[in-house]
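Practice problem 4.
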């Protein structure tokens, strides 16, 4: 495809993230439906061109567990990345719609993500760096694929410049400033799988006695708030929610206060929790098969030296079961 913005007809918006938005579009000359991700990048033209060059590696990423890439182009001041459109969206959207995801489906998710990570790392030496439910996509054919992996070092740098902050799928060693390794992705996978199985972000009621974090809808993503990277800011949805939030804020003053109104809360507490407290587990103990609990425990070893790699985990008994299971994901997809 020789992609140009004027050949792309907007159909509707698929979602918004911190770095920009994603739209379902039609490539009019060929009739191909695509997902167009628009990333606002505050960088020099030379840097943009470098990013575009680096993104071309995605043309060589061919795996059924990785979203296909159609191309990328600059549309000032944005970079547009066109990829395969997954009609059932991301897994965070799915569980928010249908509730906790059946553990056997979660097993298939684990298998797909591990296959995707192993492919990226073994074939391209790429570490994903952003495994979370919103970056695991699903379609009505029952396919599960990962997207938004760190192919472009320049893109990672530019986004880091723009959005100071952090994400709570981050492993303890990353919070403490260690190098990213493929095992950091395994941690993020463990957190994501618990989130899918429980239907809520696993730290939500454990970080604070007052369950301050219950207001989170799963993600603590990069905050746009410059050096105040220890706080996260989410605009309350309704008047009611705002009143509730304000009351909470008065009751507890641990959250870093930010300008601009809305709700503020401390991410520092959560980061400290991840580093200092035992890792979350699949609980209540008896609701899930022992193999699933053990798998998640293997992902969430706090010491990365003790943590398995994606390749090791492909041999885990729970994943072996997922490989041979005759669960029909296409049929499951048709239920929502
Ligand atoms: P963050 O910005 O914190 O990484 P995010 O992953 O949700 O969060 P985006 O990557 O911008 O942000 O994606 C926004 C939403 O668009 C996703 O949550 C997902 O539901 C949807 N989306 C992204 N890519 C696709 C795709 N290829 N097909 C279908 N939906 C997609
Ligand atoms: Mg994403």
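Answer key:
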């Amino acid at each position: 495809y020789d992609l140009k913005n004027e050949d792309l007809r907007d159909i509707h918006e698929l979602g918004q993230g911190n770095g920009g938005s994603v739209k379902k579009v039609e490539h009019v000359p060929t009739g191909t439906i695509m997902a167009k991700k628009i990333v606002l990048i505050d960088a020099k033209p030379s840097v943009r061109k470098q990013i575009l060059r680096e993104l071309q590696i995605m043309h060589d990423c061919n795996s059924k567990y990785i979203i296909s890439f159609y191309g990328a182009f600059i549309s000032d001041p944005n970079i547009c990345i066109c990829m395969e459109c997954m009609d059932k969206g991301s897994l965070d959207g799915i569980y928010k719609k249908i509730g906790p995801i059946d553990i056997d489906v979660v097993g298939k998710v684990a298998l797909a993500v591990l296959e995707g990570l192993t492919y990226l790392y073994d074939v391209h030496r790429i570490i994903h760096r952003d495994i979370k439910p919103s970056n695991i996509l699903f379609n009505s054919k029952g396919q599960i694929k990962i997207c938004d992996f760190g192919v472009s070092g320049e893109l990672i740098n530019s986004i880091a410049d723009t959005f100071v902050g952090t994400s709570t799928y981050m492993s303890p060693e990353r919070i403490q400033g260690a190098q990213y390794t493929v095992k950091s992705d395994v941690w993020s996978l463990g957190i994501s799988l618990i989130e899918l199985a429980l239907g809520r972000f696993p730290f939500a009621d454990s970080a604070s006695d007052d369950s301050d974090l219950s207001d989170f809808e799963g993600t603590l993503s990069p905050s746009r708030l410059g050096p105040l990277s220890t706080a996260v800011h989410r605009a309350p949805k309704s008047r009611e929610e705002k009143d509730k939030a304000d009351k909470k804020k008065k009751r507890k003053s641990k959250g870093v206060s930010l300008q601009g109104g809305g709700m503020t809360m401390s991410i520092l507490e959560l980061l400290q929790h991840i580093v200092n407290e035992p890792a979350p587990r699949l609980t209540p103990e008896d609701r899930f098969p022992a193999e699933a609990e053990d798998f998640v425990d293997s992902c969430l070893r706090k010491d990365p030296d003790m943590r398995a790699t994606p390749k090791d985990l492909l041999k885990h008994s729970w994943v072996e079961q997922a490989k041979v299971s005759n669960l029909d994901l296409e049929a499951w997809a048709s239920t929502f």
